[in-house]
Amino acid sequence: MIRLPTQNPNIQPSHPATLTPVIVLGFALAVAMWVGAFITHIPALNLDPALAGPIVLGCWAVAAVIAGRLIPAGNWRRTLLIGAGAGLLSALLGLLILGAQIAKPPTSHTGLDALPAPGFEGLRPNAAGAALGFLAAGVAIGLLGAAIGSRLGTRRGPGQRVDWPFRMTLVCAASVIPLVVTGGAVTSTNSGLAIRGWPDSFGANMFLYPISLMSHPAMFLEHTHRLFGTLCGLTTLATAALVLRSESRRWVKRWAIGLFVLVCIQGVLGGLRVRLGLEVGSRSGQLFALFHGVLAQLFFAGVVALAAFVSPAYRAIAPGPSLAPLRKYKALATGAMHALWVQLVLGAIYRHFHTPHALWTHAAFSIVVLGLVTGAAYGGGAAARALDGGLAPARRTVSRVSVAMLVVVTLQFALGWAALAAVLSSPAQNELPPSPEGLATMAPIPWWEAAITTAHQANGAMVLVTTTLAFVWSRRLWKASK
Fold first, then answer.
1. 179 with 461: CB under 8 angstroms?
2. 220: how many CB neighbours lie within 10 A of its CB?
3. Please, what's the b/e burial string for 431-455 (b: 16 or more CB within 10 A of its CB; e: otherwise)?
4. pLDDT tens digits, residue range 362-399?
5. Whole-model pTM?
6. Domain boundaries defined on the chain
């Protein structure tokens, strides 16, 4: 078990295991590569595979160079070993989405009624070679990133190394972002029931569902949301394992375990929504969809809180003098946190049940949320200016969180009114999602309306996580100053 000295949480044992950085960087590269693959395969873009492939490889390579900066230069053998291992791990995770490319579509199908052959019976003849080439590309990209990135990395003093468990929590938080965005897009476009079956997809292995059958935007969004959920679950499992291995605080270990349990519950809720929506009717599945959406935000906030708990700055805080600004900061951050949860539930009720009362209450309560979050941001700025002595290491973090809160809450307020105008002007936005059989005849939602409502939902998650950081840091500083 790794224990960090309290006087300098950035100093770790002189020879950390190679496996830990491989896991952290491997998952980081996978998140970047998955996001690149998602963007390049959006049906509306209709990119040629000859162009989409190099773009994904480019995203993968750039991420490898950036990740390579965390690998200390000097021991070239270890540096290249970490790079190759990280690249291989990211490629192994990438096989979960490569399956859509190497799966052979059925010889005849009709749009949404397609039933591809499950398992290996549906693979193309060159599937094995494509998979091996993909793994080799991952190793090559990892080696290149390590060789270049380690040369560009920040020079560290003797014995001062990267806090890998903390970096892993940041990777975990990054893996939640595309999941939240695709989930918001699924709701905004009424695509929640576009794929029949769970955990299968139209009777096929979920990871071998051919990309050629996802030309309908609703099917593409729903299926990629499921895939990002898998990546997020695996990343959370790896994060929990590293935290359990490195942490001495029991409550932090329990928090990490709780997050993994929660992400598993999320997956089950999403699957039950599909099953109940198919068997009983779309309205019966909306309650599961509501809980699924709210718990997704709770999970995101929990991951960000875990990142704060294991951060070097959080652990380095020493007892300091009692400061009046910290009391105000804590009170404002707590009020903003509670108000945001009320606002989140109101927004979820409207998005899933289209209740006018919830919509207008959500719009009116946004004034309260704006005031409390803005107040907490300014309170954080005042607290940061007052920090000194044992509380000084947290000054920069609190200041940055406060600035981020102001930016995202201002953007959210503007997006909220734009989303309100969009849903009021579109009858399709006020209809419950149809059954899969009705997708083909469903009135399409204009892309700009779906983009606005999805941006509002995704940026709302950023308001929540920045406020969560303010809540966590204000309580930590207040406790240290008492």
1. no
2. 23
3. eebbebeebeebeebeeebbebbbb
4. 999 999 999 999 999 999 999 999 888 777 778 999 99
5. 0.90
6. 319-434+445-482
